[in-house]
Automatic annotation (TrEMBL), chain A:
The chain crosses the membrane at residues 27-47, 67-84, 91-110, 159-178, 190-217, 283-304, 316-337, 349-370. It comes from the Bacteria. It is found in: Cell membrane. GO terms for biological process: cell division; cell wall organization; peptidoglycan biosynthetic process; regulation of cell shape. The keyword Cell division applies. InterPro entries: FtsW (IPR013437), FtsW/RodA (IPR001182). PANTHER family: CELL CYCLE PROTEIN, PEPTIDOGLYCAN GLYCOSYLTRANSFERASE FTSW-RELATED. It comes from Pseudosulfitobacter pseudonitzschiae. This is Probable peptidoglycan glycosyltransferase FtsW. Keywords: Cell cycle, Cell division, Cell membrane, Cell shape, Cell wall biogenesis/degradation, Glycosyltransferase, Membrane, Peptidoglycan synthesis, Transferase, Transmembrane, Transmembrane helix. Pathway: Cell wall biogenesis; peptidoglycan biosynthesis. GO terms for molecular function: lipid-linked peptidoglycan transporter activity; peptidoglycan glycosyltransferase activity. One of its GO terms (cellular component) is plasma membrane.
Length: 389, 596
């Protein structure tokens, strides 16, 4: 009766958003990401005062900026992670188209800030690097294409995604920004691998790479010398790498102490590319291992959760996002310990940089959205809580 | 879905017959196929994702392990790479025969700048110019504010200057330790020592390399780290050298000469006790070599070995000594020196057109008769004269151990005719350096043995070289040389108690345009003392001297060089430890009377 008079009490089908989010989100990864962000702020306190002093700001100017951008990034991450995968896909595609256009317009409206590569749009109060935002969108779009290609009567999605990938890599290489180009290529390659690249092709490519390397090493003296120089233990201590290596050595196990580090005064990129060196010098190996462990947890946990995922789009997109995130961190740290040749790449969520941190936030938000627990048609899903989606 | 029907139409046809919509069945079939496909792909992707996960774990473990390895290894100081570290700056000292220091190393610092580390480049440049007035302020400012990351400012500086730079307090100004070569005696023996400069320069050290003199000749020895504690002992005697330079400089000024040189040689060992070449320079601050003009005008020019001139009558004694040695004449054989005398169509004249008549060989030397020595040369003959002079070392640059010695190549006649033999017998037509002359006179002084001039201290007291003439001939030659001083052209050369013997030589300087200058000559006095048992040979040579106390200017060696040489011997002989043989003077006639 009451219902007839007053109408039915509003009932939502399905679960309310927040409780569902809280129940299905990957708590471990999210905690790790939050801890990483905190560590980033902490290191910003250590690494950015020299830059602030150089540019005439008060000491913690860059820390405040980073905290602001970080909060924006965290909000973006939370919001993104609450969306459904379909919603994420829609927004990501739109975002990808926008950033793609932005990337195309870069040669005309971009600035290079005197660094020799046109990568930024200057917005007055801040600058935006479209390629940072492009990456997550690109990954999602490629994943969508590949997933569609796998479906019954699907389009040739792999071919499309490959063409798209090559286009973007070329555009990035022309800026030039080989680091981002490598990341994009790597992200595509990982997705292609998971989407079922023929084993023969993989083996063939690996063989080709090894063979080309061997041939180049034995025939080209220049190439050989570069490789030898990279592999040799000696390093000129006056180069950036030399300073970074020395800083890690100075730090030892427990660091020289908060604020006692020297390397941040010598390295122009101490707050971005070589932040891990600052961390190692001031806080020692302990903090570095913690940071590495956090990245590992995020990446590996995400991949493990994606193993159970049946939806190919979600699996591919999640893989692409997690791997680009992980490999970026790996390259950054690998450079600092001279495992990899020098390449400017930020440490996601830790290095200073508004575009970088917000883009990372969005990308990780997507990743969290993709790795949320979903019924996968398994027996536990059928028998278990029975709430499902 | 317990089993999938083999025939797709198996359910559709009955459904259609029952009036059901077959599309639903078709969709259901499709969905089932789709699900199956997804599960299949998930199974495949599962393993690949696992591989990816493993890859990331491994990669992060490697990065972490590498971090750990790095952090437990020792840090190294950022320092300039490569050359600096390997430079050996140790350089052996140089001492004289008594161990007195001639050249040593001095620790100082070089100043360099790293403008990237500078706090206030402009102020630093200003203060630097106050400390080092020779620096260019504008250029420093340009260098400090420009793109340069590293520049040398000063190669060496004094401790006071270094302190002043310290007090600027700019972190971009840095000091590189340097071992600087120091010659504590200043200009003394400058031509022998030569000098040194920096070779390869690094931030932590710089190489010191010899650029001239013994520093260059013995560069390898001096730089050898094994010899760091073993100084190079020269034959020079610092005291004698100082006195010789002093007296010769005074003599050069008195005689209005533009240059002077002297060589004092031990006749038995060939050790050079003192060698002077004036004008001189300070090896601590070696002047740049002159690009233009006559190189012999440069203070760097070492007259004792590089000054190759026709030395004139000093050569006559060789003709006399050889003639006696060959048995052609004795000291008393009479020689006809009356004009005319023509050789190869050229008349041979005497100084001031004198005519000495028929005189003994001794008198030929005493009066310095050109025709007399020419007659002796003709008796000796070209071949024997050549052989004799070659043995005495006149055919090659002196083997004296300083780098400049090799440049003193003697000038020999292209065709050695009878005329050449005659002119060479009185010192024309063959050019040689004072060092060669000193070595040749040593052979006469030591009784006929060739000596090799050397700058190194010799351990043995006598180097028995090849015999070049008989002891008798050498003794006769010494007797004649003594006579030149007592009764001949070198009468100013007498130094009481030291029995100086010697021969003068005044040769007109060749004019580069051809011929000879009439009013410019090289006046040489080659002497030995004491003549009865010579210990030392002293060759003194003045370049363009003129003595103006008389009515007309006098340029011959007897008036110019001989008094200078005599003064040198007077000063040097006691320093060399020679006792003057004081001849008992006749006692005054005293009559002892007693008046009682």
């Amino acid at each position: 009766m009451t219902e007839m008079v007053y109408g039915a009490a509003p009932v939502r089908d399905g679960e309310p958003i927040l409780p569902k989010w809280w129940r299905t989100i990957d708590m471990w990864s999210m905690s790790c990401i939050l801890i990483l962000f905190t560590i980033g702020l902490l290191l910003g306190l250590a690494a950015s005062p020299p830059l602030a002093a150089k540019n005439g700001f008060e000491a913690f100017h860059y820390v405040q900026r980073q905290a602001f951008f970080g909060c924006v990034a965290l909000v973006a991450m939370m919001l993104t992670s609450m969306m459904t995968p379909v919603m994420v896909r829609r927004l990501a595609v739109v975002g990808f188209l926008l950033t793609f256009v932005a990337l195309l317009l870069l040669p005309f409206f971009g600035t290079d800030f005197g660094k020799g590569a046109t990568r930024w749009f200057s917005l007055g109060f801040a600058s935006v690097q479209p390629s940072e935002f492009l990456k997550p969108g690109f990954v999602v779009v490629c994943a969508w294409m590949m997933a569609a290609g796998q479906d019954l009567n699907g389009p040739p999605g792999r071919m499309w995604s490959f063409i798209l990938c090559v286009t973007i890599v070329l555009m990035l290489a022309l800026q030039p920004d080989f680091g981002q180009a490598c990341l994009v290529l790597f992200g595509w390659g990982v997705m292609y691998f998971v989407a079922g690249a023929p084993m023969l092709l993989l083996v063939g490519m690996a063989g080709l790479v090894v063979m080309a390397g061997t041939v180049a090493y034995s025939s080209s003296e220049h190439f050989a010398r570069r490789i030898d120089g990279f592999l040799s233990a000696d390093i000129d201590p006056t180069t950036q790498l030399g300073y970074a290596t020395n800083a890690i050595r100075e730090g030892g196990l427990f660091g020289v102490g908060v604020g006692e580090g020297e390397v941040k005064w010598s390295l122009p990129d101490a707050h971005t590319d070589f932040i891990i060196a600052v961390a190692a010098e001031e806080y020692g190996l302990i903090l570095v291992l913690v940071i590495i462990a956090l990245y590992t947890v995020v990446v590996v946990r995400s991949l493990l959760r994606l193993m159970r995922e049946r939806d190919p789009f979600i699996r591919l997109a999640g893989t692409g996002l997690a791997c680009t995130f992980g490999v970026q961190a790996m390259i950054n740290m690998g450079v600092a310990v001279r495992l990899l040749p020098a390449k400017g790449m930020t440490l996601p969520f830790v290095s200073y940089g508004g575009s970088s941190v917000i883009a990372s936030g969005i990308a990780l938000g997507m990743l969290l959205a993709f790795t949320r627990t979903r019924p996968q048609g398994e027996i536990s899903d059928l028998l278990g809580r029975g709430r499902g989606r | 879905m317990i089993r999938v029907p083999l025939r797709p139409l198996a359910r559709i046809l009955p459904a259609r017959a029952n009036g059901e919509n077959p599309d639903a069945i078709e969709r259901e079939n499709k969905r089932i196929r789709h699900e199956e496909m997804r599960d299949r792909m998930r199974a495949r992707a599962e393993s690949r994702l696992l591989i990816l996960g493993m890859f990331f774990v491994c990669a992060f473990v490697v990065v972490g392990a590498r971090m750990g390895l790095l952090s437990i290894s020792e840090p190294m100081e950022p320092r300039a790479y490569a050359p600096g570290a390997s430079i050996s700056a140790a350089r052996a000292d140089i001492v004289d025969r008594n161990g007195a220091l001639l050249a040593t190393n001095f620790e100082t610092h070089a100043l360099y700048a790293q403008p990237t580390h500078m706090i206030d480049p402009v102020a630093a440049a200003e203060k630097l110019v106050q400390i080092f007035p020779d620096l260019d302020h504008d250029r420093l400012v340009r260098d400090f504010t420009g793109k340069r990351k590293f520049l040398w400012i000063k190669k060496t500086m004094s401790p006071e200057q270094m302190q002043a730079v310290h007090e600027i307090g700019d972190p971009g100004l840095m000091f590189g330790p340097r071992d600087m070569r120091l010659y504590p005696n200043g200009t003394l023996a400058a031509h022998v020592l030569g000098g040194a400069s920096f070779g390869k320069e690094g931030v932590s050290a710089a190489e010191v390399i010899g650029v001239a003199g013994v520093e260059k000749y013995f560069d390898n020895y001096l730089r050898d780290p094994d010899n760091a504690g073993k100084p190079l002992a020269l034959s020079l005697d610092l005291t004698v050298q100082a006195a010789a330079e002093r007296v010769l400089w005074g003599g050069m000024k008195l005689m209005n000469a533009k240059g002077a040189t002297s060589v004092l040689m031990d006749v038995h060992t060939g050790e050079v006790i003192s060698v002077v070449s004036l004008p001189t320079f300070d090896p601590n601050n070696r002047p740049r070599p002159a690009i233009t003009g006559d190189p012999s005008d440069s203070p760097l020019y070492n007259r004792s070995v590089q000054g190759v001139y026709e030395l004139g009558s000093v050569f006559k004694i060789f003709a006399a000594a050889q003639a006696i040695d060959l048995g052609l004449v004795t000291a008393d054989t009479m020689i006809d020196t009356t004009p005319p005398m023509r050789v190869g169509g050229y008349p041979i004249g005497e100084f001031n057109r004198k005519n000495y008549g028929v005189i003994s060989v001794t008198d030929v030397i005493m009066h310095s008769s050109n025709r007399g020595s020419g007659r002796l040369a003709l008796q000796i003959g070209v071949a024997r004269q050549q052989e004799f002079l070659k043995k005495l070392g006149f055919f090659e640059a002196t083997p004296f151990e300083i780098v400049e010695a090799a440049q003193g190549k003697p000038l020999l006649p292209k065709q050695w005719t009878d005329l050449s033999a005659v002119t060479i017998s009185y010192g024309h037509g063959l050019s040689s350096s004072p060092m060669q002359l000193a070595a040749a006179y040593s052979a006469i002084a030591n009784g006929g043995y060739i000596v090799k001039p050397t700058i190194l201290k010799q351990d043995v007291r006598s180097l028995q070289g090849e015999r070049v003439m008989s002891a008798k001939a050498a003794a006769d030659a010494r007797m004649m040389l003594r006579k030149v001083v007592t009764d001949g052209t070198a009468s100013f050369g007498e130094v009481p108690g030291y029995a100086v013997g010697g021969k003068t030589g005044s040769a007109d300087k060749p004019n580069p345009q051809g011929g000879y200058y009439k009013d410019r000559n090289i006046s040489t006095f080659a002497s030995m003392f004491p003549t009865n048992d010579p210990k030392y040979v002293l060759v003194v040579s003045l370049d363009e001297p003129v003595e103006t106390s008389g009515d007309k200017p006098r340029r011959t060696a007897g008036w110019t060089t001989v008094p200078v040489a005599a003064e040198m011997i007077r000063r040097l002989a006691p320093l060399l430890g020679l006792r003057p043989t004081v001849e008992p003077t006749t006692l005054a006639d005293i009559t002892l009377t007693s008046s009682n």
